[in-house]
Specification:
With 83 residues, the chain is of the alpha+beta class. It has helices at residues 10-15, 20-30, 33-40, 45-56; strands at 61-66, 69-74. Strand 1 and strand 2 form a beta hairpin.
Length: 83
């Protein structure tokens, strides 16, 4: 049976954003004014952290075209990254 909040969150593990202050830095750096206003309406810190991690995850991925189609590879750094 599925257990909620059991184990590490894959978004947090991959994106490395764990604090609301880090999430707000990501929003300020990556979002335009219109989307920032939409994000500011969300008050749940856990949701904001997940959104910030979803924003930074693509910067940890590389994609390339192979003879069989597109291939992507996720690079997870063991060092702390800043947004």
């Amino acid at each position: 049976m599925l257990k909620l909040k059991n184990g590490e969150d894959i978004l947090v593990a991959t994106g490395k954003i764990k604090e609301i202050s880090q999430a707000r830095e990501v929003f300020a750096a990556k979002l335009n004014k219109e989307n920032l206003e939409k994000i500011e309406k969300i008050k749940t810190e856990e949701a904001l952290i997940k959104i910030a991690n979803a924003i930074v995850i693509p910067s940890t991925m590389t994609c390339r075209k192979t003879r069989h189609g597109w291939s992507s590879r996720l690079f997870i750094s063991s060092t702390k990254t800043t947004p």
